[in-house]
Amino acid sequence: MATPYSSINEMFLRKIDDPTFIEISRGMAEDEMLGYMQQAVANFKYPRVDIQDRDDFVGEFNQNLSYAEIEVISTLMKAAWARRNIMSLENIKIQYGERDFNRTPQAPMLNALMRLNESIEREVEMALWNYSTTENHKPSSIFGKLAGKEEV
Predict the structure, then answer these.
(1) Most buried residue, 5, 26, 51, 61, by most Cβ within 10 Å?
(2) Residues 74-90: what's their mean pLDDT?
(3) Which residues contact 141 (CB under 8 A, 6 or more apart)?
């Protein structure tokens, strides 16, 4: 069974507040989200299913992703989205110069985005931790093995 990209994109869009995705065409929005998804897949270490097995043309993972995997991918997409927005403002800052940039309305926005990025990075760490320490809504079997039990 396959998992359509749309299910991950919907989760991602619920995590951000960006009117850009409403203002641009559906095709452009899907292309933008595909880029974030590709970054997310590249940064998702040790998934339980093969998330590289996907069809970007059809727009689906060829595996049945769990809710936990969709959560991790959408959170990693959010991190990629935040980094892109920060880099956009960082480029404006370079063009203006430090002193002039600090007088623009973008300076507080950049500071807010930097704080948001720190929060998102903690969110990513928590999502990956939760994913790696649970299996089927139960503690991972690794904890039983660490405690000296053969199988949990």
Answers:
(1) 61
(2) 84
(3) 135, 151, 152
Beta carbons within 8 Å of 33's beta carbon, 6+ residues apart: 5, 9, 12, 21, 77
Contact in structure between 70 and 7 (CB atoms under 8 Å): yes
The 3-state secondary structure of the chain reads CCEEHHHHHHHHHHHCCCCHHHHCCHHHHHHHHHHHHHHHHHHCCCCCCCCCCEECCCCEECCCCCHHHHHHHHHHHHHHHHHHHHHHHHHHHHHHCHHHHCCCCHHHHHHHHHHHHHHHHHHHHHHHHHHHHEECCEECHHHHHHCCCCCC
pTM: predicted TM-score of the whole model, two decimal places: 0.73
Say yes or no to pLDDT of 136 above 80. Answer: no
